[in-house]
Automatic annotation (TrEMBL):
Keywords: Glycosyltransferase, Transferase. This is Glycosyltransferase family 4 protein. GO terms for molecular function: glycosyltransferase activity. It comes from Tectimicrobiota bacterium. Residues 171-335 form the Glycosyl transferase family domain.
Length: 374
């Protein structure tokens, strides 16, 4: 197959969504498919809206020799109107890879309305979807007010190498010393680091330490604000901003940690929860979004309502004091990991979906197609 993929910037960008896209591209190429990356430079949201008026951008997509065009939904502001101009000029179907919806992130009411309108127009302009979770599918179908054609392909969690065995997890959970927390994500508002810091500040009398693994370059203003908050709360000695890390370094960090702490991060799925579960780390996760597909409350971690800092502080205090609960959650998290597909299985599922779409599309000569639901 000849497959196009629309993204912003580089496929090597460090984020869960780009990891998903990257793993898919690697698999497709290994199967002998040709994949053409169609990239736009990163710009502000308003400037991306102007991409819809770009004749060179439209011509580039129209002239691509493809069997199917994939578009990362992150690119919706650059495509919401352009797709309608593109459709009469091409025979290939357009599918969107949806990780989560921008309009469900925290923002001001006027901006949320703008995101909602633009995102709705974009989602209505494509022929089908690749969803990273059932929760993401529900979000899309809720916005479009009806079922849509597509496939749910959960991310894999095996990127970092072999999972930790249960005996090693038992030994780690019973060791003495502070509760070792790890937060894995770029320093951006959607990840909710600020709320976690506030809860930890209420536990100054308890033994804990936190490592924050992620880039400060995506939103430098927010990252600087988090550094100031750490200083203001007097947590400099206990909170490390370690920056991005290689896969090997991240695997080592997960082996040595006790708990993944991302209680207020909104995620369409949350690959990091699955990768942490491979190392027996229970997760503090948000009840909003798709984390509940991995994290079961009081079984493989805890799900918290957005902003419930007192509840978070209480859970942390309990886990610091009761390592038997930590062990129970850790073993359950490791077993939950085993229930999910590998990256190879995920990408194979997507490729099967594409193989079904492409022959059907060749018979429709560019008209809107209907793909059997998955």
């Amino acid at each position: 197959m000849r497959i196009g993929l629309v993204i912003y910037g580089s496929l090597k960008t460090l984020s869960g969504g780009y990891l998903y896209d990257r793993k898919l591209v690697e698999y497709l190429q290994a199967q002998g498919d040709e994949v053409e990356i169609l990239s736009l430079p990163w710009r502000s949201y308003p400037r991306h809206l102007l991409d819809n008026l770009s004749s060179p951008w439209l011509d580039r997509l129209a002239q691509a020799r493809l069997d199917v065009l994939l578009q990362d939904e992150l690119n919706h502001p650059s495509l919401f109107r352009l797709n309608r101009s593109l459709r009469p000029r091409v025979a290939y179907p357009i599918l969107s890879i949806v990780h989560h919806l921008r309009c469900q992130e925290q923002s001001t009411p006027p901006m949320r309305l703008l995101y909602r309108v633009v995102e709705w127009r974009y989602l209505a302009s494509v022929d089908g979807f690749i969803f990273n979770s059932r929760a993401t599918r529900r979000s899309v179908e809720g916005l479009l007010q009806g079922p849509r054609e597509g496939v749910v392909a959960h991310p894999g969690g095996n990127r970092l190498g072999p999972a930790l065995d249960e005996e090693a997890i038992r030994i780690r959970a019973q060791r003495r010393g502070p509760l070792r927390l790890v937060f894995i994500g770029n320093l951006i508002p959607r990840k909710g680091l600020g709320g976690l810091l506030t809860a930890l500040a209420a536990l100054r009398d308890e033994p804990w330490e936190l490592a924050v693994v992620g880039s400060r370059e995506v939103d430098p203003g927010y990252a600087a604000a988090m550094q100031r908050r750490i200083a203001t709360l007097g947590l400099e000695a206990r909170v490390q901003l370690v920056g991005p890390r290689s896969d090997a370094e991240l695997a080592h960090r997960l082996r040595e940690s006790d708990l993944l702490a991302m209680p207020f991060a909104y995620e369409g799925f949350g690959i990091v929860y699955l990768e942490a579960a491979a190392y027996g780390l229970p997760a503090l996760a948000s009840s909003a979004g798709g984390a509940h597909e991995i994290v079961s409350h009081d079984e493989t971690g805890y799900l918290l309502e957005p902003g419930d800092i007192p509840r978070l502080a209480g859970i942390l205090r309990h886990l610091i004091a009761d390592r038997s609960t930590l062990l129970r959650l850790s073993l359950a998290a490791r077993r939950r990991f085993a229930e999910f597909p590998t990256w190879e299985q995920t990408a194979s599922r997507i490729r099967s979906f594409l193989s079904m779409v492409v022959p059907h599309a060749s018979q429709t000569q560019g008209h809107r197609i209907l793909v059997p639901p998955q």
